[in-house]
């Protein structure tokens, strides 16, 4: 239903009347209890928000190969889409989802605990909730370390948010919530043994859509499509009484309700009693057939509200909400469109401003403001009912405008925490508009400022309207053709940079930025791209130093006196708005001694990785395979075949391929199988034997990337030829050692290494080698799919040994 429909306006009036507020806190996108959020926001009309400490960038993607920062951007938008359904607001901290963590102490050792704690305190002080609710128990064990850490930090923040001595650099007024609960979940209910929880019923229907909160919660959760929830439904029968249990973690006791003892009316605010009286009267007299009849009373309420504190963030939020209600009652719609969504700093923008009104109320369009230009254009247009008033202007995007890039990705942070230069952005979901607009209207002597921004409106091939915010782009984008390039010490290697024009007649010079001990030739190269979309590739010769190292090489182009070092990555999914990323155009140059044997590798991709590209950097000819039926003759030309990550989970016909692969091994071939999940292999794909000998997968993993390595079979060829592997080859690994190790295997398999997380027994299933007939079958849960793109030298040397074992 439209946001300006009568039921929607009435719901917003009820929301304005309510002063109660709840902040829900957990670790990841999809951790939130969407049913509770929908009930609190749309049922009780409380100010409700979800604080996700991370953006989910460390997870897997059920829709595409987009991982890492791109996945985090997509999941940010999924959360915003979910909040539009359940009605809550969305916040984030600077914590990075660095992958699975077994316990909260490990998590807090990787996150910058003080920064993340500061972020939670900041959100509490800005949002000012009466009650905090965690999704997870603060007691350790039994779940992801991020989960427990989110509850532990929430409890600390509960105590610190009201302390003026805590984080004074924020410049925010302290705020003390009344209490903090754990929303007991079924998967952690055993931790509430002996505790009598507070229970509340959350049944009912949304007054706007008529949907139950249960169904709204399903629709909200279904927005997490990159996590495979696109058809999500709650298990069991629907309807009936719905109950949510809560355990008090700290703060004032509660007997009947989570907001026991909280004044949820305007009477809690100094000078708020008249506001309460006015809004009660407006709701009582609201006419669904003529919302504009409420305009005079809303204007009077607006005058009363303007006399209240301007420093209280809740009052500020309520003022904006009241303006939106007034706008909806007037049926006043404002829009600014532009023909192009990609704008280069300093360029002109053709803007089309329009306004319509469907109420018989005198409204005058006074002016349009462009805050970044410190400019106001006066118009003085009297709006006519159901007639569009419009005018065009040509404005210039400031030359100082920042290129579009999610604010948390603009600077390099640490493996656990994003770096954010502008403290005002911390906690927010996404960037502010690059070119904000304010439309000024006068109604009965009052001035109404309606925020706006330029958008491009297009229609895709399916007839769906696409509304896109403007993106600030450079005139050219740059991209290395390889993300990793391997060098022998003191060897030279050509690297290629592709330049793409986004403006006609783009001219300038291109160069590489490298550490001083890496030689670059030539130092610069001129370019001239005539047409928009034109590509041109440039070769540079890099010479590595004597010592082994992994360094970042950056490409930059100088155009019209400005230097740009950005590549272009677009994120496009049907369920969220298009997103543009413009990260640093860089590649990893790896200087190392690595020997290889064999020439031709077959690669059977799985859920998505770049291992095949890395094998090509090692000098191999890589041929991409699919899961059709192969004959032994077709496979005999490969020196080794590598199976991509989770291939046994995602390839529907792979069960028919495996017997031929095993026969290939028996005839003298080598197969290297990378990690898989156990949950769908037997149940969905009906694969009983994933190796020539019995092998059982588990959930075992080693998340400490610095975990000590023990060699269990020091004389095995995979540790000795053609590269001598030492413990030093496991230095510099990223995120983890590995995941989903086998925990049982046939005696024909030889475990090669052992490693473990702190306080746990050694795991021996990370690398298993079996001779089968004349060949070798290797299964590894080691995270080569992360290490090779990260340029970890030892990972290349060890992987070279795996695929060379038969040679």
- Rg, please? 30 Å
The profile of the biggest β sheet is:
7 strands, mixed
Strand tally, please?
41
Low-confidence stretches: none
Mean pLDDT: 95
Helix content percent band: 10-25%
Head-to-tail CA distance between termini = 67 Å
* Tally of DSSP helical segments: 16
**Strand pairing plus helix content: what structural class?**
alpha/beta
Order of strands, widest sheet: 3-2-1-4-5-7-6
- Which term fits the overall shape? globular
State which percent range the strand residues make up: 25-35%
Note down, in words, how this protein is organized.
The protein is an alpha/beta fold and 807 residues long. Helix content is 22%, strand content 28%. A seven-stranded mixed beta sheet has the order 3-2-1-4-5-7-6, with helices on both faces. A seven-stranded mixed beta sheet has the order 32-31-33-34-41-40-38, sandwiched between helices. A hairpin with a 2-residue loop joins strand 14 and strand 15. Helix 1 runs antiparallel to helix 8 and helix 5 packs across helix 6. The relative contact order is 0.08.
Topology, please?
Layout: H1 6-17, E1 21-26, H2 34-43, E2 47-52, H3 69-86, E3 89-92, H4 104-110, H5 113-127, E4 131-134, H6 145-160, E5 179-183, E6 198-201, H7 213-221, E7 243-251, H8 273-285, H9 295-306, H10 313-330, E8 333-338, E9 342-343, E10 348-356, E11 364-370, E12 375-382, E13 389-396, E14 437-443, E15 446-452, E16 454-459, E17 465-469, E18 471-472, E19 476-480, E20 484-487, E21 492-501, E22 506-513, E23 519-521, E24 524-529, E25 535-543, E26 549-559, E27 562-564, E28 569-571, E29 579-581, E30 586-591, E31 600-604, H11 611-617, E32 621-624, H12 632-635, E33 640-643, H13 647-650, H14 654-666, E34 670-673, E35 695-702, E36 710-711, E37 738-745, E38 749-751, E39 753-754, E40 767-772, E41 775-780, H15 784-787, H16 793-804
Parallel strand pairs: 1-2, 1-4, 2-3, 4-5, 8-16, 9-18, 20-30, 31-32, 31-33, 33-34, 34-41
Antiparallel strand pairs: 5-7, 6-7, 8-10, 10-13, 11-12, 11-14, 14-15, 16-17, 19-21, 21-25, 22-24, 22-26, 23-25, 26-27, 26-30, 28-29, 35-37, 36-39, 38-40, 40-41
């Amino acid at each position: 239903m439209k946001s300006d429909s009568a039921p929607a306006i009435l719901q917003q009036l009820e929301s304005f009347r309510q002063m109660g507020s709840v902040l829900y806190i957990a670790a990841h996108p999809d951790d939130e209890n969407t049913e509770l959020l929908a009930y609190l926001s749309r049922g009780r009309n409380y100010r409700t928000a979800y604080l996700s400490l991370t953006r989910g960038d460390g997870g897997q993607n059920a829709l595409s190969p987009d991982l890492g920062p791109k996945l985090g951007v997509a999941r940010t938008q999924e959360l915003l889409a979910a909040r539009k359904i359940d009605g809550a607001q969305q916040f984030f901290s600077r914590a990075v989802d660095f992958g699975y963590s077994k316990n909260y102490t490990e998590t807090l050792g990787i996150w910058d605990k003080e920064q993340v704690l500061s972020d939670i305190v900041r959100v509490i002080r800005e949002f000012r909730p009466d009650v905090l609710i965690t999704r997870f128990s603060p007691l350790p064990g039994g779940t992801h370390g991020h989960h427990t850490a989110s509850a532990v930090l929430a409890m600390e923040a509960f105590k610190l948010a009201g302390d003026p001595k805590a984080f004074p650099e924020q410049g925010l007024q302290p705020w003390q919530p009344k209490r903090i609960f754990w929303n007991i979940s079924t998967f952690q209910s055993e931790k509430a043994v002996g505790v009598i929880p507070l229970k509340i019923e959350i049944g009912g229907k949304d007054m706007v859509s008529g949907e139950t909160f249960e169904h709204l919660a399903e629709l909200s959760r279904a927005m997490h499509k990159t996590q495979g929830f696109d058809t999500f439904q709650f298990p069991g029968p629907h309807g009936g009484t719905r109950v949510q249990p809560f355990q008090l973690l700290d703060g004032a006791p509660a007997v009947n309700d989570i907001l026991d003892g909280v004044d949820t009316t305007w009477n809690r605010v100094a000078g708020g009693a008249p506001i309460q009286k006015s809004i009660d009267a407006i709701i009582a007299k609201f006419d669904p057939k003529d919302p504009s009849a409420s305009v005079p009373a809303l204007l009077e309420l607006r005058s009363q509200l303007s006399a209240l504190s301007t420093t209280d963030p809740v009052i500020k939020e309520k003022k904006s909400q009241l303006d939106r209600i007034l706008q909806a009652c007037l049926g006043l719609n404002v829009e600014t469109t532009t023909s192009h969504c990609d704008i280069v700093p300093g360029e002109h923008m053709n803007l089309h401003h329009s306004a319509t009104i469907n109420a018989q109320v005198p409204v005058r369009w006074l002016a349009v403001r462009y805050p970044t230009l410190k400019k106001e254009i006066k118009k003085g247009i009297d709006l006519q009912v159901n007639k569009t008033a419009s005018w065009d202007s040509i404005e210039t995007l400031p030359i100082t405008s920042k290129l579009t890039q999610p604010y948390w990705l603009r600077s390099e942070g640490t493996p656990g925490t994003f770096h954010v230069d502008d403290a005002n952005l911390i906690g927010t979901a996404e960037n502010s508009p690059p070119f904000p607009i304010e439309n000024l209207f006068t109604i009965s002597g009052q001035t109404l400022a309606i925020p706006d921004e330029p958008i491009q409106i297009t229609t895709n091939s399916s007839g769906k309207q696409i509304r896109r915010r403007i993106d600030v782009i450079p005139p050219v984008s740059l991209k290395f053709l390889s993300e990793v390039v391997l060098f022998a010490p003191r060897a030279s290697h050509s690297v290629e940079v592709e330049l793409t024009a986004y403006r006609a007649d783009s001219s300038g010079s291109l160069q590489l930025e490298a550490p001083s001990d890496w030689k670059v030739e030539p130092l610069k190269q001129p370019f001239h791209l005539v047409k928009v979309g034109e590509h041109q590739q440039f070769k540079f010769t890099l010479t590595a130093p004597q010592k082994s190292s992994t360094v970042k090489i950056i490409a930059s182009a100088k155009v019209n006196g400005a230097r740009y070092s950005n590549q272009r990555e677009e994120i496009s999914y049907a369920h969220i708005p298009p997103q543009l990323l413009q990260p640093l155009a860089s590649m990893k140059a790896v200087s190392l001694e690595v020997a290889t044997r064999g020439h031709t590798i077959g690669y059977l991709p799985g859920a998505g990785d770049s291992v095949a590209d890395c094998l090509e950097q090692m000098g191999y000819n890589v041929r991409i395979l699919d899961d059709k039926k192969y004959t032994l003759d077709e496979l005999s030309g490969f020196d080794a075949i590598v199976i991509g990550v989770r291939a046994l989970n995602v390839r529907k016909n792979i069960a028919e391929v495996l017997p031929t692969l095993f026969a290939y091994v028996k005839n003298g071939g080598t197969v290297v199988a990378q990690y898989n999940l156990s949950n769908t292999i037997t149940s969905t794909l009906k694969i009983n034997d994933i190796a020539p000998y019995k092998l059982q997968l588990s959930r075992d993993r080693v998340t400490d990337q610095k975990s000590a390595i023990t060699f269990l079979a020091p004389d095995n060829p995979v540790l000795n030829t053609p590269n001598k592997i030492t413990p030093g080859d496991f230095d510099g690994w990223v995120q983890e050692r590995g995941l989903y190790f086998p925990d049982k295997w046939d005696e024909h398999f030889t475990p090669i290494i052992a490693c473990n997380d702190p306080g746990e027994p050694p795991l021996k299933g990370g690398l298993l080698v079996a001779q089968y007939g004349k060949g070798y079958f290797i299964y590894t849960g080691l995270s080569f799919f992360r290490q090779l793109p990260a340029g970890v030298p030892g990972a290349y040397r060890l992987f070279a040994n795996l695929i060379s074992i038969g040679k």
